[in-house]
Design brief:
53 strands; mainly beta; four-stranded antiparallel β-sheet
């Protein structure tokens, strides 16, 4: 496809992605565009492009612009005599139906429904038919016939009717129900799959014609006792036809990959959209051809544009492993901003490439990103200083990937995909292993300090999230928490002895009783608490007060009683064989048997919590106040056995992130970004202001 160019330094929005079909016959002067929603009468075609309406002959050529209003026009449909085009526009704000002469003129507004109305078709006698929900008490689309001379409106007595086409008599209507479900999944066969129906004036009820097929059948067009329509019965949306009773099925077009969209029919000829092109099909001869069209446009949308507030377009912000800088992704472009003095630099420079979910690699010198340079989202690395090209890490993208998280040693990347899988990519071998036990959904992945373990939440079959441990050496999974409550946001202590997480185990309801005039259900405004798991047997919680046996060293061995969280995991009782790790990193050794018996509550009040992080000195998390307008605060709890107490570190924040070394915190407050010390005392507003990253010159 011809790529869409999206940039921040130069936000260039390309009009047209070109399918392979647009290696078309030689065209007259002008430029190629993205052509949509054609309508046909005689040798004239009206279509939508650039948000305007255009006219061209069936032979193609240089199109003529019909509209130029800044608002979008769409859904053109030509009257039976070919002199008037009805369309949908947003001139006054609401989505309403307008008409105008094909030769040009001021559009006339035809509907005032407030609810969106869409130009749909015409009756053989010249009445305009549009689709609206205005006359329904529910979200129920209906067809309404409008006499343009008298203004009289007549509701077609059908529920959920859209996409209509009349036979020559004007008494029989072929229509679609239910309305388009806005699901663009290929080969959709869900409960909202569209069917083609037939309704004859005076009949008691309509009858479905495509009941025998579970997939999509839509866009009916009647001609000479046959109904032409679009269906994906061969895997791609193509033109098919049937007789007036739904029998004698025939396939007419054989496009593969790119779907046929928005067909129009007149006198045995069809025009329709495939990709970004318009095609012509002659029913009598079965001849089809691409219509060569160019636009005499100034393509204003291709002019260089500047975003003066890139933070409004921010999609991710992540902290350098040592807190030295921040990598910002906005509008598909990547920038690195210093936490102190220095200059903002563009880490991505290749035009036409869009990046997402960009993070620092552990070395701090490179970035890992998802790049669409190949046409699919693939993992790649980029130099953090912007000098040098990206290096691909994967080349097999078929499903959207998300948010790669590199291991501390930089050898592996954990990520999720759009099919709810959780994977580990080994960079050296390119091996990708699915580590999730199911595709119910997972995330919150956290690497152990020695890069051998991944802790993350995984949705069980009953929809509750539980914490699982995955060992990259043995490729085995161990359940840490049960599926009777939600547990998430796992985070490792830097020494590898403890795993912390959040869980909604506080069942204190604000509603005092399950009765009353509206019989309210329980409302848990503070469901979350903090928990820790001893990864080795006999560990003493660092929060446990000193006693005569343990006056100064809470980490020393102890065997306290603990309540079981779930049935013991069916997993090995001994730790897997260790992988060699750098000398500076202590190997994380875990007693897998009885993990659920070594879960302890952290001494902090309950609340509405998320995004837990752990450093050697403290725990950090986000807490949201009760109520629809509740603000979110960054909380901190010092790791101490001397009366620990949670403190609001920074109030009213958007998000935060801890650096890998645990010494710095990235804090976002709306459009501002700060890098502060990972302390345990509340940060005053004046002190916070001094740590703000200067992005005032970023455009």
């Amino acid at each position: 496809m011809r790529p869409t160019v999206l940039a921040v330094l130069a936000l260039t929005l390309s009009l047209a992605a070109v399918t392979p079909a647009q290696s078309q016959p030689s065209s007259p002067a002008g430029a190629l565009g993205f052509y949509r929603s054609p309508t046909l009468r005689g040798n004239a075609i009206v279509f939508a492009a650039e948000g305007d309406l255009w006219a061209v002959s069936t032979e193609g050529g240089l199109a003529r612009r019909l509209t130029s209003h800044p608002a979008q026009e769409s859904d053109p449909t030509l009257s039976p005599d070919g002199k008037t085009v009805a369309f949908t526009a947003r001139y006054e704000g609401p989505v309403e139906v307008y008409t105008m002469p094909v030769e040009g003129g001021v559009p006339t507004r035809r509907t005032y429904e407030s609810e969106p109305s869409f130009a749909t078709t015409w009756t053989p006698s010249g009445d305009l038919v549009y689709t609206t929900q205005h006359f329904a008490t529910l979200q129920d689309s209906q067809l309404v016939s409008l006499n343009l001379k008298t203004g009289e409106r007549t509701r077609v007595p059908l529920s959920q009717a859209t996409e209509g086409s009349y036979d020559a008599s004007g008494r029989t209507l072929y229509f679609v129900r239910p309305a388009f479900h806005n699901n663009v999944t290929k080969r959709y066969k869900g409960g909202q799959a569209r069917k083609i129906w037939k309704f004859t004036e005076g009949a008691k009820e309509a009858q479905v014609l495509t009941q025998s097929y579970d997939g999509e059948s839509h866009s009916p067009l009647w001609w000479k006792s046959r109904v032409y329509f679009v269906s994906d019965r061969d895997g791609t949306m193509n033109i098919w036809s049937m007789d007036e009773t739904g029998g004698d099925l025939r396939q007419h077009t054989m496009h593969a990959g790119w779907d046929v969209k928005r067909p129009a029919l007149d006198a045995g000829r069809l025009v329709y959209q495939v990709g970004v092109d318009l095609w012509h099909y002659d029913i009598t001869t079965s001849a089809e051809r691409l219509i060569p069209i160019t636009l005499p446009s100034d393509f204003d949308q291709l002019r260089e544009k500047w975003a003066t507030k890139p933070m409004d377009l921010l999609t991710s912000a992540h902290l350098h492993p040592k807190g030295d800088s921040v990598v910002l992704t906005a509008r598909g472009r990547v920038f690195v901003a210093p936490a102190g003095s220095g200059r903002l630099l563009a880490a991505s420079r290749k035009p036409g490439v869009r990046y997402r979910d960009v993070r620092f690699m552990p070395d701090g010198k490179n970035l890992v990103a998802l790049s669409d340079v190949s046409g699919e989202l693939e993992f790649a690395t980029l130099p953090a200083n912007g000098v040098g090209d990206e290096k691909p890490l994967t080349s097999d993208g078929k499903v959207l990937r998300f948010d790669g998280r590199p291991s501390p040693d930089g050898k592996r990347i954990a990520y999720t995909d759009n099919d709810n899988g959780v994977f580990v990519l080994t960079i050296a071998t390119k091996e990708q292993t699915m580590i999730a036990p199911n595709r119910e959904g997972g995330g919150d992945m956290a690497w152990s300090p020695d890069s051998r373990w991944i802790a993350g939440s995984q949705t069980a079959s009953n929809s509750f999230a539980r914490i699982l441990l995955y060992n990259v050496d043995t490729k085995t999974t161990t359940q840490v928490t049960s599926d009777r409550v939600n547990s998430l946001s796992a985070s490792w202590s830097p020494d590898g002895k403890w795993l912390y997480f959040l869980s909604d185990r506080n069942m204190e309801s604000v509603v005092g009783a399950p009765w009353g005039p509206r019989q309210p259900e329980p409302f848990f405004d503070r469901p979350m608490k903090l928990y820790q798991v001893a990864l080795k047997k006999g560990l003493r919680s660092p929060f446990k007060p000193a006693d005569e046996l343990h006056p100064d060293a809470p980490e020393k061995s102890e065997k306290p009683e603990a309540k079981s969280d779930a049935a013991p995991a069916a997993s090995p009782s001994a730790s897997p064989k260790a992988t060699p790790v750098p000398k500076a990193v202590t190997a994380v050794d875990i007693d897998l048997d009885g993990l659920d018996l070594r879960i302890y509550e952290v001494p902090a009040d309950a609340g509405d919590f998320n995004t837990l992080s752990v450093t050697a000195k403290a725990l950090y998390w986000l807490a949201t106040d009760p109520g629809a307008e509740g603000k979110t605060h960054l909380m901190v709890l010092e790791v101490t056995n001397k009366e620990p107490k949670a403190v609001k570190l920074v109030e009213d924040v958007t998000s935060y992130e801890a650096s890998s070394d645990g010494k710095k915190l990235l804090v976002r407050k709306k459009a501002d970004v700060y890098v502060i010390d990972a302390g345990t005392k509340a940060v005053a507003a004046t002190d916070l202001a001094k740590t703000r990253i200067d992005l005032s010159g970023w455009t």
